Every structure is written in C-alpha cells, then in structure tokens.
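Folded chain entry —
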Amino acid sequence: MASEALASLEKAELVEEVARKFGWAPKLARAAGVAAVPTLIVLSGLNIMAKHESDKARRELAARGLLVYEDL
C-alpha cells in the first residue's frame, strides 16, 4: 500500500517539477523523499534529547549557584 502511494507520488506534477529543476530523475527525487522521513524522525529525536539534557544541565548549574537569574 505504501509503495503504491509512493509510486503515485513519483508521477505527481510537483515531484516531476522539482526533479527537473534539480536535474534529477523522478525516481531519485522519490528516493530522496523516502530517505527524508527517517532522517526527520532521527533529527527530531536528537533535538528532543538535547533539549532535555540542556534543561537538566541548567537545573544542575542553578542548584550549585552557578547561574544567575537572567541565564534561566
């Protein structure tokens, strides 16, 4: 089912236009789109983890008295 949806996207006018502007074949544009999904998921996860660690570090520094109120 997912491969049918991706195959129909390959023939979409927008995909063909983007592929033509970049000088790619439509299949390459489709592959780039498919690769973008897991990349987005991984980057979002890393961003969430970095935010959590930043908050944790800020709390630790505040507990030690190493941060002033403006830094919070």
Remarks:
- The radius of gyration is 22 Å.
- The chain has a mean pLDDT of 83.
- The helical segments are 2-10, 13-22, 26-63.
- The chain is about 80% helix and 0% strand.
